[in-house]
């Protein structure tokens, strides 16, 4: 490279400077020398090399002691380049007749350290011009320049908003520069996450270069402009018994730490942190809730609805009634919104609500009136009615001859609750029959059955007893040789057909008698009509009233 038409060597600070002598070696060369020129133009010789004796001598110059090296081709090397080495050096070749000189300009470059943002502000406040920090780049040569960036864009100076001051200080011992650029900045709310950085621009042997600092994000403080209240947990519905927390927040930075909470029914605000908790809320907690800053400058509100569900079952618990009695049952619901009500009896859902105008044994059981509140998860109520239907034992005895005609079945049909205990006895002997078989006890009814083959007529007694009463019924049973059927529903198919045939015969006889009566009536009516016609004819021909009377008497007798 040439500087002002002169040959220039660019060197890096701390490296070795190599300067070739750019003269052709002449014939008859005696020696070669290197010198540099002082600012006033006076020369300072630093190295000598004889062409004949091949010896090298270095002048006693403190700045270059032990740093110089002069090669056979008169190339001068200077170790550990310094800023002070930026001079005009001259190569001299001397013969007996001539002295040739060729100057070389030395330029030394030093890359600065990576810039750092020091003395950073703890935080920034909006609407306030304050010192953001200082960008420092050290040990540069030549001096560099510093530029500030925000989010990758250059920050241009702006009155009362962006103020930049650059200072460059040189180290007198080394000649290196330190650049310090301070930035005063007035932030806005949008600068909350902005990245600030600085870049130093410097020159190196190959041209202009840049080094960037690490980006810095500042905490930007700004006042609250809006207050928001919310209910936690964020559920769509709140029911009685829930725990809820009111949370108030402001959009400032830092956010407010204290608020005033306004509760329904309270005239004054309750001072608290950013939360206000309520446990086991009841329906009277329904209403509008508000919160504001301590100075009451901003406020927000929300409405809370505490859903509830009440169920009243009348009667409830264990209820004992007598068979045939009436029992009004009501299940009343009170709720904050539409509720679904359903009945369950003995683990089976009922299609309609229970109603008892005359209690029967099958009405006994465990009844549950249950309700749920639509769209409110977990809000359900149920109450239980355990209905007991009691009744004194009722007995009906039946008998029939079995198809084999070898035995008779005697059945004691029993109703009652609690379940009666049944005993059989034979009247006369009073002995207890222990071979009876019982059917399953269902809806307060069951049967006790015995099979006997009496040789003679006997009287059987069925005794049913529970806590309410003892009932006794007897039945006369003929000897096995006499068939008996007094329980039509228990007869077999052959007997049923016989009964049907007998019924048909009876119906035929009745119909025949009715038809005969109808015919007799018609004959009588025709006879009466003919007799009246004959009477009128005699009266007209004879004109005799007395005879007519006699004829009427005779007619009456004949009619009779």
Automatic annotation (TrEMBL):
Residues 103-212, 223-305, 324-386, 393-473 form the Ig-like domain. The chain crosses the membrane at residues 505-527. Gene3D superfamilies: Immunoglobulins. It comes from the Eukaryota. It holds the Pfam family Ig_2. It is a single-pass type I membrane protein. Keywords: Adaptive immunity, Cell adhesion, Cell membrane, Cell projection, Disulfide bond, Glycoprotein, Immunity, Immunoglobulin domain, Membrane, Repeat, Transmembrane, Transmembrane helix. One of its GO terms (biological process) is cell adhesion. One of its GO terms (cellular component) is axon. InterPro entries: CD80_C2-set (IPR013162), Ig-like_dom (IPR007110), Ig-like_dom_sf (IPR036179), Ig-like_fold (IPR013783), Ig_sub (IPR003599), Ig_V-set (IPR013106), Surface_Rcpt/Adhesion_Mol (IPR051116). Its main location: membrane. It is found in: Cell membrane; Cell projection, Axon; Cell projection, Dendrite. PANTHER family: CD166 ANTIGEN, CELL SURFACE GLYCOPROTEIN MUC18-RELATED. This is CD166 antigen.
């Amino acid at each position: 490279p040439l500087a002002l038409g002169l040959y220039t060597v660019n060197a890096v600070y701390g490296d070795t400077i190599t300067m070739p002598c750019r003269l052709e070696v002449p014939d008859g060369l005696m020696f070669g020398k290197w010198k540099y020129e002082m600012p006033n133009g006076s020369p300072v010789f630093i190295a000598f090399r004889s062409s004949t004796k091949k010896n090298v001598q270095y002048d006693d110059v403190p700045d270059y002691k032990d740093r110089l090296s002069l090669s056979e081709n008169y190339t001068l090397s200077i170790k550990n380049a310094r800023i002070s080495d930026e001079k005009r050096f001259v190569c001299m070749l001397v013969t007996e007749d001539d002295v040739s000189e060729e100057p070389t300009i030395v330029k030394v470059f030093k890359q600065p350290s990576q810039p750092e943002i020091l003395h950073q502000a703890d935080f920034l406040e909006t609407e306030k011009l304050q010192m953001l920090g200082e960008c420092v780049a050290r040990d540069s040569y030549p001096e560099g320049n510093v530029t500030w960036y925000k989010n990758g864009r250059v920050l241009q100076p702006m009155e009362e908003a962006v103020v930049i001051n650059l200072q460059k200080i040189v180290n007198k011992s080394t000649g290196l520069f330190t650049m310090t650029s301070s930035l005063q900045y007035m932030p806005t709310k949008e600068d909350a996450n902005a990245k600030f950085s600085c870049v130093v621009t410097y020159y190196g042997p190959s041209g202009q270069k840049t080094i960037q600092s690490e980006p810095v994000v500042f905490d930007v403080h700004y006042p609250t402009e809006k207050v928001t209240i919310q209910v936690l947990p964020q559920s769509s519905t709140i029911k009685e018994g829930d725990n809820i927390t009111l949370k108030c927040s402001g959009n400032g930075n830092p956010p407010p730490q204290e608020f005033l909470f306004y509760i329904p029914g309270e005239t004054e605000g309750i001072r608290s942190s950013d939360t206000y908790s309520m446990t086991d809320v009841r329906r009277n907690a329904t209403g509008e809730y508000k919160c504001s800053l301590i100075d009451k400058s901003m406020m927000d509100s929300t409405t809370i609805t505490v859903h509830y569900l009440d169920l009243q079952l009348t009667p409830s618990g264990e209820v004992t009634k007598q068979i045939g009695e009436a029992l009004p049952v009501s299940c009343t619901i009170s709720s904050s919104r539409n509720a679904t009500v359903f009945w369950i009896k003995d683990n089976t859902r009922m299609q309609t609500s229970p109603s008892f105008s005359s209690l029967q044994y099958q009405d006994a059981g465990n009844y549950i009136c249950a309700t749920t509140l639509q769209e409110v998860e977990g809000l359900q109520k149920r109450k239980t009615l355990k209905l007991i239907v009691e009744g004194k034992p009722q007995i009906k005895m039946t008998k029939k001859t079995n198809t084999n005609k070898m035995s008779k079945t005697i059945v004691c049909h029993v109703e009652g609750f609690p379940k009666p205990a049944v005993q059989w006895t034979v009247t006369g002997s009073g002995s207890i029959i222990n071979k009876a078989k019982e059917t399953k006890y269902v809806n307060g009814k069951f049967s006790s059955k015995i099979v006997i083959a009496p040789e003679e007529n006997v009287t059987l007694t069925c005794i049913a007893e529970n806590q309410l009463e003892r009932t006794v019924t007897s039945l006369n049973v003929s000897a096995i040789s006499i068939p008996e059927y007094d329980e039509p529903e228990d007869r077999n198919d052959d007997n049923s057909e016989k009964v049907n045939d007998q019924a048909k015969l009876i119906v035929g006889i009745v119909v025949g008698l009715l038809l005969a009566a109808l015919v007799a009536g018609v004959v009588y009516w025709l006879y009466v009509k003919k007799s009246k016609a004959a009477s009128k004819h005699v009266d007209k021909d004879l004109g005799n009233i007395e005879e007519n009377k006699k004829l009427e008497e005779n007619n009456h007798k004949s009619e009779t």
